[in-house]
Structure formats: structure tokens, C-alpha cells
Amino acid sequence: MLQTALNFQGTNPIDILENIFGQKSFDLERRGANEIVVELKGKWDNMLLFFAWEERLKCLHMSCFVNIENKTCDKSRIFELLALVNENLWLGHFSYWTAHDLPIFKHSVIADVADADFESKLSQMVEIAVNECEQLYPVFVAVLVQNMDPKQVLFAASNVLQ
After folding, report:
1. b/e string for 93-120 if b means 16 or more Cβ within 10 A?
2. Which pLDDT value is given to residue 80?
3. Which residue ranges form the domains of the chain, and what is each CATH number?
4. Which of 47, 58, 89, 145 shows a CA-CA span of 20 to 30 A to 154?
5. How far apart are CA 95 and CA 79, in angstroms?
6. % pLDDT > 70, the chain
7. What is the Cα–Cα distance from 78 to 83, expressed in whole angstroms?
């Protein structure tokens, strides 16, 4: 998805991301030196990817917002679902942005832009986030919109998610 033949020598991964996504004509918004937001067309709905660079820690953070508005008042089901889903993740985790009632996939990495495979690692990071969000989109809809029981939804979806 992000693979490119660039030899970009910047020290800020946000510059690299802006260049890569810009070349591929994605909608993006640079929000300062250390933040960028990119909109991707997903299988179910558009997703927003937010990247932030923490210079002192040399850490690149990515959040992928799942565009599903919570229609239930029972937040305990949402948090139960997040706990159950996160048990099976190897990289990253799902969280919930309570201010906007949206599920979010988050992942951070210590970034070395001098690494020859850095762009490939960025690509993997984005692909993992998008795949996890798309795979679990119907599960989130069942719980957040239809107010279904998280355990029952995950049990029913377990054959599909394998």
C-alpha cells in the first residue's frame, strides 16, 4: 500500500508519510510538524489514520478511527468487546474515544528513519491497522449500533475472523 521507491532522507517520519500518501493522491491534512491525518477508503466506510511523531522518544504513534457511531448507552458492552478483541491481537490494540464515541485501533513504534526498511515497516503498520479495523467492523456495528452481546457476536464471527 505504501511501498514506494523514494529515498527520502528526512529525520521526521511525518515528512515521509506526507510524501508517500501525497504521491498516491490520498486526502491528507498536515497538522503541524509532528502530526498528519490521512483518509483512506475502506471496505465498509472511510477510515482516518492519525500519525504523531514524538521526537524525544523517537516514537511514531498511529491511530485508525473506525467510523461507527455508538447508538447504545451501555458503555460496559463496548469495553467488554474491546477487552475480548484485544486478547487476540499481537500488535496494537483497540481503544475507545469516549469524547466522540468511536472505536480506535492504536499502535506505536520506535522509529528509525535511517533504517533501510523503514518505509516497508510503515506500510506493514498501516496494513495491520486497516485489516484489523475492516475485519472487526461488522462486530463493532453489532455491538455499538445493534446493542448485541459482545461474547455472542464474537462467537458468531469466530469462524469468519479465523
Report:
1. ebebeeeeebbbbebebebebeeeebbe
2. 92
3. 13-161 (3.30.1460.10)
4. 47
5. 8
6. 91
7. 9
Length of the chain: 162
Residue matched to cell numbers 495491520 = 128
What lies within 8 Å, CB to CB, of 93 at 6+ separation is 86, 105, 106, 107
- Distances in Å between the alpha carbon of 107 and those of 69, 92, 93, 125? 22, 4, 7, 8
Quick one: angle between helices 150-161 and 118-144, nearest 10?
130
Extract the C-alpha cell encoding 80. Answer: 467488554
108 closest CA partner among 125, 94, 96, 124: 125
Residue of higher predicted confidence among 34 and 115: 34
* CA angle at 45 for the pair 39 and 46, rounded to the nearest 5°: 5
CA within 13 Å, CB half, 146 = 12
Cell of 89: 491481537
CA distance linking residue 64 with residue 66, whole number of Å: 6
